[in-house]
C-alpha cells in the first residue's frame, strides 16, 4: 500500500489522481489532501478518502472547513508545506498550479519522500536546486505529464549516455491553424477552445502560446540531464505519440496511447510496476502526422529555448512573467499578443544571475512580476 | 573485440553484416565465414577480413576455393555445422536462407555461443527445441530482423508479465494494393517488385504473400514467450514503426527508424551497447498510417496464425511447404496462387504431432515437401 499526499486535490490533475486511487483502493491510500479554496469538493473528498490531514490555502475557508470535519486542517500559505513535512506518507503528488508548488516540492524531497510532479513550473524555475536535492536525498521524481512520462518510459532499460536527442511532441494547441495576422485578435475563448487534453485554464493558454512546450523542454533538461541542443520539439496534432528518445544508433523509441492524463498519473504512482489500463486503447485507425513548430507564430517557444540555453535566473523570469501575463489575459485585462510582447521585454531587460539560490529566484520572480505589470500598464496607456 | 562467425556471408544479410563490421573494425573481428557457392565474393571477403576458417556448401566450389586461399575450407552440407562447433569465437551470425540454418544454430547454442539470428525459419520450424537449448545454455539469442529487434528494444527495462500484446507492423509487401481478382495473375516480377527493404528473393516473396509476417508472429512467440492471442499484426506501409509492445496499462512502446537492415544487424552485435548510427535518421516529414491486414487476399498470414495456434509439427509443415512452393514460383514452375493453395492442402492433410524432436521435424519436412510436389504436379495435370 502506497500512502500518498495530494497537493491540489480539487484541481484538474488532482481529481484525476483520485480517479486512479478509485481504481486501486488496495494499492493507494490517501494520507493527505490540500486545496486552494474549494472546500465543498475537498469536504466530499475527505468523507470519501478519509485522509489523516488536509490543508487549505484560503484561511477563511480553512476555518470554515475545520468546523465541518474532525481531522487537522492546515491553513494559509504554508498549508502545503506542512503537509509535505509530515512523516507518515510515501509519495507527494504535487499538482499545484504555477509557482506555488516549489517550496512544498523541496520540503518533501528533503523529507525523503518520492515525488509525482504535475507542477512543471517548479522545475522550470528552480530545476537546478530541485535536482540537486533529488540526488542528495536519493528519491524518485516521477513526472506526471504525458510527455515526460513518455520520455521516462522510452529511457527504461537504456543507457542515457546513448541519447542522441529527446523528441518532445506537441499537439500544436488551440491556435495551431491561426495565421500570424489573426493572432492579434485571439480571444480567451479562442485560446481555451481546442482541448485534446482535459486541462486547467492556465496550462491551456500555455499550450496555445506553445510556452507550455518550452517549459517541457526545460523540464526535460533537468529530469533527464540533457542539454537543450539535444531536445527537439515536433508538432504532432493527433497527440498519440507522447514523446520519443532517439539513440546514438538512429533507433527511436516512442511511447503511444490515446491522450488521457490518467495514464501518466497512474504510471507515476505504479512505477516500477504497471497496473491494468484505466484508459481506452489506441485502435490504429488514426494517421500520425508531424511537422516543425512555427516559431514566427509561436515566439514563446523560441523564448523558452533561449532561456533554456542561457539558464541562470532567466527561466524563472520568463516563467514568472508568463504566469502574470496569462492571469491578465484570462481576466481579459490584456490582449493575446501582449503575453509574448511583455515576456520578450522583461527577458531582454533582465541581467542573468548564474547558479541562483532559492532566495535569488524568489527575488527575480517578484521583480519580474512587478516589471511585467509596469510594462503592461505602459503599453495600455500607449494604445 | 567481439569475434563473429557469419553463416551466409555472401548473401543479402551477410554482406550487410560485413558493412557493419567495416564501420567498427575495432569492435568486431571476423573469425569465420561461410557461403553456399559464391566463392568469388567469398574469396574477396577472405582477403579483406582475414578469417581463420571458411565453409562452402557446394563441394566442387569448396575444392576450387581451397586452391586459392591458405586457410582451412570446410566443405559440403556440414560446413556451417563445423563452423558453429569451433571454439574461438563469441557470436554466430546465422543469415542462411530457409531451413539450412537450424542445425548450425543448435550446434552454436550447445557450444555456448551467442546467436544473432536472421534465419527466421529456424524458430518457426524448431522454436521449442531451440529455445529450450537457449535457456539451458544461458546464451543470448538476438534477432536480426527489424520487427523482432524492435520488439526487443520495446521490452528493454520492462517486466514481461506486463505485456498486453505485441504489435508487429507489416509494410504490406509488393501486392499490398492488388485486388483479390488480380491475385491469380501475379508474376514473379510483380511479387518481387516493391522493395521497401533490400532483401533476398525468397523473403521478398514471403513478404508478398504475408507468410513472412506469419513467420514473424511465430518467431515472436518463441523469442518473447507470448501466446499468439497476444500478438497483433498491423499494416503500416511506411515501414517507420518497426513494431510495438502494448503494456497492461495501455501504454504502447514503439521503435522507429528509417527502414535499414543495418540498424537491427548492428544492434544485435552491439547489444547491450548502442553504437553510432550507420543509417539515415528519420526526418518526421512522413505521415504514419495503419490498417488491418486483409486475410482474404493474403490467406498465408491466416495459415501461419492457425499454425501458431495449433503448434506441434504444423509450423514446420507449413514452412517446408512454403519453402518448396516459393522455390517453384521463383523458377516459374507454378502460379502465384498455387503457393497458398498447396500450403492449405498439405496443412489440412497433416496429422499434428505434439512436442516434436528434431528428428520428427526433419521427417515431416521431407514428407511435406514430397506431398507438396505431388499436389502441385496433380494440380498441373488438372489444368
Q: What's the layout of helices and strands?
A:
The structure is a homodimer of 383-residue chains.
Chain A: E1 2-7, H1 12-23, E2 28-35, H2 39-49, E3 53-56, H3 59-68, E4 73-75, H4 79-84, E5 91-94, H5 102-110, E6 114-117, H6 120-137, E7 141-143, H7 146-155, E8 163-170, H8 188-193, H9 201-209, H10 211-224, E9 231-235, E10 241-247, E11 252-256, H11 262-270, H12 299-310, H13 314-330, H14 336-349, H15 358-382
Describe this structure in words.
The structure is a homodimer of 383-residue chains. In chain A, helix 6 runs antiparallel to helix 13. Chain A folds into three domains: 143 residues, 3-Layer(aba) Sandwich (Rossmann fold), CATH 3.40.50.720; 148 residues, no CATH class; 70 residues, RNA polymerase sigma factor, region 2, helix turn helix motif (Rna Polymerase Sigma Factor, Chain: A), CATH 1.10.1740. Chain A contains 15 helices and eleven strands. Chain A is α/β, with parallel strands linked by helices. Helices cover 48% and strands 15% of the residues of chain A. The longest helix of chain A has 25 residues. Chain A has a seven-stranded parallel sheet with strand order 4-3-2-1-5-6-7, sandwiched between helices. Chain A has a four-stranded mixed sheet with strand order 9-8-10-11, covered by helices on one side. At the A-B interface, strand 10, strand 11 and helix 11 of A face strand 10, strand 11 and helix 11 of B.
